[in-house]
Design brief:
The chain has 191 residues and is mainly alpha-helical. It is built from five helices and two strands; from the N terminus they run ααββααα.
Length: 191
């Protein structure tokens, strides 16, 4: 009985030693694959995608507010004013579209320079196409509002802006979710 007990204990100790060896060697390999710069780059990518999302939503918001202001004659949004005075809804829409487009182009350059861009590249093309759609929709709405044709401006907004902003929000969410998984895996490797 004692021999069996000692043999059982010996087997148990040897199996535990084997498990500890495997775990320790796996941890050493994982630690070698730990890259804090990758985590920082992914974080920058997520931040830029958030800025793109907010900018695209601002474009849609500016379009809707300009339609409301032109059709009602009431200024409801302070983006159409500045320290230089009142812009009005048409100049406000033009300025917000111009500035946001330039800002989005800058964000695009910053994002493409990151080594983690390849993680979102496939979906990013859809995001970039949506940006072009929202900007062209803004100028299209502006042209209709300049002609005092609010009905056509509303149709463009409903047909172009609303579906595009819904689609691009989903694309950005999916991209950020995928990057979240990459950060989680990096966190596991860096333990």
């Amino acid at each position: 009985m004692r021999i069996r007990l000692r043999t059982g204990i010996l087997r148990f100790c040897l199996s535990m030693f084997g498990i500890v060896t495997v775990v320790c060697s796996s941890a050493a390999v994982a630690k070698d694959q730990c890259d804090f710069q990758e985590v920082a780059d992914i974080t920058k990518t997520v931040t830029i995608l958030g800025q793109i999302d907010r900018s695209l939503n601002y474009l849609a918001f500016s379009q809707s507010i300009s339609i409301i202001e032109v059709s009602s004659g009431i200024t409801v949004f302070s983006a159409n004013t500045s320290e230089d005075g009142f812009f009005g809804p048409l100049v406000g829409l033009r300025k917000s579209t111009d500035k946001t487009e330039a800002y989005l182009n800058d964000l695009d350059k910053r994002l493409r320079r990151l080594p983690t861009f390849d993680l979102i590249e496939d979906r990013y093309q859809d995001i970039w196409n949506a940006k072009a759609e929202l900007v062209s929709g803004g100028y299209n709405i502006l042209a209709h509002l300049e002609d005092n044709d609010t009905e056509e401006a509303i149709k463009v907004y409903a047909a172009k802006t609303v579906p595009t902003i819904q689609s691009v929000t989903g694309d950005i969410y999916t991209s950020v979710s995928g990057l979240g998984k990459a950060v989680s895996m990096a966190g596991i490797r860096c333990r």
